[in-house]
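To whoever picks this up:

The nightly regression suite flagged JAB domain-containing protein similar to deubiquitination enzymes as changed. Nothing in the input moved, so I suspect the structure step. Input below, exactly as stored in the fixture:
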Amino acid sequence: MYVTLNMTAAQHAELRGHLYPGDGNEAVALLLCGHRIGDENTRLVVREVHPVPYARCRRTATRVDWNPAAESDALDRAEREGLVVWKVRSHPNAMRGFSAQDDVSDRELLPIFSAWGEQVSAPSGSAIMLPDGSLLGRYLQGSGEFVELDAVQVVGHDLKRWARTSGTSPSQASHVMAFGEGTFAAISTLSIAVVGCSGTGSPLIEQLARMAPRELILIDPDVVEERNLNRIVHATKDDAEKERPKVEVLKRAIEAMGLGTRVRILKASLWSRQAIRLCGEADVVFGCVDSPDGRYLLNAISIYYTIPYVDLGICVDAIPTSPTTSKVRAACGSVHYLVPGGSSLLSRGLISMADVTAARRAVTDPEGLEREVKEGYVRGVPTSRPAVISINSALASLAVTELIARIAPFRDEPNSNFDQVEVDFAGMTIFQHAHPRSCRSLGAHVGLGDAEPMLGIYMGLEE
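Regenerated output under the current build:
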């Protein structure tokens, strides 16, 4: 089981501000966490930072004493809302590790936290923040043994991650030269989900797989057809004739690379509980879906499970000039980087709730769905074999570069200026946009995890 702790950049800043007030003494805080308990990965997601007031502590440079009973309001809330409790303390002396004193106090305290949230099977635990803001943590097994967290991830404009790594594999050597060993050591610990494995998704998956992440999760409901052989990487005519699922074809290709990435696949709609759960286990989610309802759902998953979401979209607009020719009016693509607590696709104006409702209605309307399929990639000109693989691949490259930039910022400007990257292929220009306004409607749900109803949706999810 791979266990991680995720929080937003704002939560991390609040935590660091309390633990390091500038007086050189230790301090302590509680984290109230939602969770996603999966078959392979368990995710703890911070819902609230609860600073333990300095006035209720005895603090020195090497020790902090406090009474958990005095924080019963936070513990009662955790019990009431099904949240998991973690303790975090500072080590002003920069000692990287747990002391013998920590061992004694954690063996006394963690069972109390677990008993308070006995209805939740996710582990309570203890973490240390060092002066540089880095975090390490552990939890107590039933056997009485401490188990180290596999990773702590802070999700913001920059993606900060502290993980137990095995170093850099030889297959990553060329990338290491360009961006630094730490970047690709971080990528080797990531679980990455890609939803939509067709024209844009398949070249994206190809590039991600070449960087040897720990795990790729592929979700798509469709099978390979002859009409999309010209844009799905690794698909063959035999795959189309035998109607193999797209996710199976891509899994076969990734495993043939032999780079050690574990691949999990799901042939299902995103609007299924199983797909949502799988996405909730990932460290990063990429969305290659066209529909407003799919994009909305991925944005909600990002917020509930505190995961960065990278949204890819392509539009080719053409007008017919004769029965056999057409003129392209626009060919563009965009990559949106979204984080919980920040702006959303709704607040950015890319989609509206009316769009989402209409898209869900079309799923149950065969005629509406048929119209959507006929429109395909190229608006205004019906075609079943659009020649868009070059555009798809270019946008996929931008999205992968976006991930690298978040892990190891290398651009001339701060990442906060690159919430959206838009490319106009007709004019061969690239634009960047910042979207600083937070989303009011989705922002309140940060860190809820597996709360019911799932993602706040009362009906319409498949099992």
